[in-house]
Each structure stands twice: as C-alpha cells, then as structure tokens.
Design brief:
The structure holds 2 protein chains of 2 kinds. Chain A is mainly β. Chain A has one helix at about 30-35; strands at about 10-15, 20-25, 40, 50, 65, 70-75, 85. In chain A, strands 2-1-7-5-6 form a 5-stranded mixed sheet, covered by helices on one side. Chain B has helices spanning about 15-25, 60-85, 100-115, 130-135, 160-170, 215-220, 280-290, 340-350; strands spanning about 5-10, 30, 50, 95-100, 125-130, 145-150, 155, 175, 180-185, 195, 200-205, 205-210, 230-240, 255, 260-265, 300-310, 315-320, 325-330. The chains are: A mainly beta, B alpha+beta. At the A-B interface, loops of A face loops of B.
Chain lengths: ~100, ~375
C-alpha cells in the first residue's frame, strides 16, 4: 500500500515479529510497519483491525510493542539498530 | 395507585433507578436531571456492588445491601433486555486484601460483628489464608498476608449501568428532562406538588421523589426533612488495558471487562473540590502496587476525583416528608450497590405511599437532636 519515494541514505535493521527488516534511519516504528504491509494491529477490545490515522501522536491507533514494552505509540518512536518490534494482537499479557 | 404522577428530582444512579422502578409499575414519571457540570457521584465511582463491609452497627442497612445484591442479576438481565445495554455486572464474590496481620485481624473483627448482627445464615464470609488466596488472584505482592472473601460481592460498569437505567426508563414511557436546576417544591393549587426549575418551568405531579445527591440537603429542608449530606472526595486511577488477570474485584483494585485496571480509593473532606492531587494519587498507586506489583508495568491513562454523598453515619436516608405527604427522599453513598433494591423495592414503597418497616432504621429521625 505504501512505497518509499526514494531509497534511504542509511539503513538500520530491526526485528519485526522476529524477522529482520531493513528500515531507513530516522523512520518511525509506525512507518516501518506501514512499509512492511497490511495488518498493523488488532484492537484490544473486539479484535478489529486498526492502523495509524494521524502519525503525529494524537490518535493512539499506532500502538505497538517495542523492546518488550506494549502500547507504545509507534509514530513517536524512532527506529534503532536491533530494536525488537512486535505487532499487537489484542491486549498485552502481563507477567505476574 | 399506579396512575399517580411522580416527579423525580435527580437523574443519577439513585434517581434513575427509582424512576425506572416507578415507570415499570405503570406510573407516569418525569425525571428532572441537573446540568452536565453537576457533581455526579454516578459518573465518578468505582462500580463495585459491595456487601461485605456495609452496615456495621446498622443491620437494616447491611440487610438492604444484601437484598439489592441478591436482586442484581435479574436487574442486570432486565435492564439489558429493555435498554440493549449490558452493564457488565457479574458476581464472582469479592475480596478485601490485608497487607498486615493487624489489618486482617481488624477486617475479620468488623465482618464478624456484621455477621453477628445479621439473622443467622444471612451473611457469610471467609477468611482466606495467603496460600489459598494465590489460587484466587495472581501476582500478589509479598506483603499480602490474606484476605476476607464474601460471595455476596460483585462489580459492574457504573457508566453503562446509568446509561441502561436511562434507556430502560425512557422505553417504559418515562419523560427525561435534562439540564434543569430545581429551585422550588410547593403544594399545587389543585392538589399534588409543583416543582419549579431555574428557567421558570413548572412540573406538577401527585408525588415527588428527591434524589438529587448533594443537592438533597437544601431541597429536603424545604419540605421539613433534615438530610445532612456532605461531599467526601475520592480519587480513582485507571491504567491502560491488559489481558484479563483478575477474575474478581478487590476493594481497591479491579479489572474492567475491557481490560483496564481501576485503582482506589481515597477519602478526603475538601468541600466541593474535584481536582486530583498528585500526593493522593501517589498514595493510591503505592498502596495498590504493594498488593499487585505487576501493575507497575502499566501506564496510567486517566485519573479523576468525585464526590461521595455522605451522611453523618455513612448510611443512606429514606424518608417521607411529615409536612408534605407524598414527597419522599432517597440519598446516600453506595447508590450503585443499592440500585436493584431502589428499582424493585423502594419504588414499590413509594408507589404504595409508605416506606416499608425494613427501612425504618434509615429514616432521617436518627439525626434529630435528642431532647
């Protein structure tokens, strides 16, 4: 659905649901997920498919797990080498 | 007479439950609600349907709470049927956690006294040792020594409950008037009563129910009833959602069906102030993190303060005006717990024109100065 307008000058490698994915340095986590294709996340109540609307930190529809922390706003987190990103399928499971 | 026309002043969970109950009996009812910025305990509370600690030294109130809790499942089903709104009530029982042996001892003493004041077999609770508690609730902190458990207890979503009551009331033909501040109640020329509002509207009815929360003191005084209510502030914290962990509510921490955790509870005498306070919220968080350390992995998404409607002894007031027969008062804390009894029992008393003997101990006469 989305494609890059130009090849990135520099890339970093992140793990998206365990798989190595190349991202442009400076990308937001949300942009990496959108570039990787459909099925961004499933809502925690009802399980509906959701994706970012605003990309500027307002809508909270870009929630994603980053380095083990659930419900991060993907549009506000910049990728870093080796970052572990997981799509959220429902609500986070707490460790007790 | 089921054709008596009622005016109910107050559209919170107390006024709406009574209005619904009256409409259900066939009465024409007008429910007059305040403005959106009124102080509303109905929209700020924790949503417990709670019995275990209620009515120490006042067995009539303990029995009333139990009666309401026992009616609640039918109440929920009927409201859902009539309004299409599921208020998320369930009754898995509830626990009060103790963080020290002293706390547990004190709780057990209080519940033991409530049991002793109740007719045999009507109120039961269990003292749960820590090992057994771990099978009931996950992730308890090391300081939790045990708990009291009562099968009478449950929880609901009080916002959905209020919504369901309003929907069911209107479906039964009840008239809802919103955004009106009641300024007067007086005998009408042709019999019955005239209730006037700030914008000059006058509603007339055969009977009146005053259920205006913190506004009750002033309104009740106009019809010769002494109803000393004052605001007691409570603050609540809500976290982001997580997968279900808590299958039953505790007194100060519960998980909603949608997955958020609600954390309470504070009590402060700060008059009409509904601003939150970082020091109070910090105490609420700290106490509940000792009970459930895993909560530290969750972010807080909201916090708020609300005002409880508190009488001097903490118990509700149900009464009929001696000078203006047919004007009734219903007020007090715990309007969510008592909602089923308000809809099914209290409304029936108001319909018959006389409050039943089971509520005699909850009349306002208990606050009269003893001569």
């Amino acid at each position: 659905m989305f494609r890059r307008r130009a090849a990135p000058a520099a890339t970093v490698t992140v793990r998206l649901d365990g798989e190595a994915v190349a991202a442009a340095a400076g990308d937001s986590v949300a942009a990496v997920l959108l570039a990787a294709g459909a099925d961004y996340r499933r809502h925690g109540v009802g399980g509906a498919a959701r994706a970012p609307f605003c990309m500027i930190g307002n809508c909270h529809d870009c929630l994603v797990e980053v380095d083990g922390v659930a419900n991060r706003q993907g549009c506000l987190v910049t990728v870093a080498e080796g970052m572990r990103i997981r799509r959220m399928r429902g609500k986070p499971v707490l460790a007790t | 007479m089921s054709d008596a026309r009622f005016i109910v002043i107050g559209g919170g969970v107390v006024g709406a439950a009574i209005s619904y109950g009256l409409a259900r009996l066939g009465h024409p009812v007008t429910m007059i609600d305040g403005a959106d910025d009124a102080f509303r305990a109905s929209r700020a509370n924790f949503g417990l349907v709670w019995v275990q600690s209620k009515g120490l030294g006042k067995p009539d109130y303990a029995a009333w709470s139990r009666r309401s809790a026992a009616l609640y499942e039918d109440f929920r089903a009927e409201l859902e049927d009539e309004s299409g709104v599921d208020c998320a009530y369930h009754r898995p029982g509830g626990v009060t956690l103790a963080l020290s042996d002293d706390e547990l001892e004190e709780q057990v003493a209080i519940l033991g006294q409530i049991r002793g004041e109740a007719p045999a077999g009507e109120f039961e609770f269990e003292v749960v040792e820590r090992a057994q508690l771990d099978n009931m609730l996950p992730g308890l902190g090391p300081e939790v020594v045990g708990a009291t458990y009562s099968a009478h207890d449950g929880e609901t979503n009080s916002l959905f409950l209020l919504h369901a009551l309003h929907g069911a009331f209107q479906r039964r033909g009840g008239a809802y008037v919103q955004g009106h501040h009641v300024t007067g109640i007086e005998a009408a020329a042709g019999g019955g009563y005239a209730v006037s509002t700030a914008d000059g509207t006058v509603h007339t009815g055969d009977r009146v129910v005053v259920a205006a929360g913190l506004g009750n003191q002033e309104l009740a005084a106009r019809v010769g009833l002494e109803v000393p209510v004052r605001p007691v502030q409570g603050q609540v914290i809500v976290t982001e959602r997580a997968d279900p962990l808590l299958s039953m509510p505790t007194l100060n921490v519960k998980q909603t069906r949608e997955g958020t955790f609600m954390l309470g509870a504070s009590q402060a005498e700060v008059d009409y102030d509904i601003t939150t306070d970082a020091a109070v919220l910090k105490r609420i968080a700290a106490r509940n993190l000792r009970a459930f350390p895993f909560l530290s992995d969750l972010r807080v998404v909201r916090s708020w303060a609300g005002l409880r409607v508190m009488t001097p002894d903490g118990f509700p007031i149900y009464d009929q005006s001696p000078s203006h027969p047919g004007i009734f008062i219903a007020t007090g804390h715990s309007g969510v717990t008592t909602a089923a009894a308000h809809a099914y029992v209290l409304a029936d008393y108001f319909s018959k024109g006389e409050i039943g003997a089971e509520l005699a101990g909850l009349s306002s006469a208990r606050f009269h100065v003893q001569a």
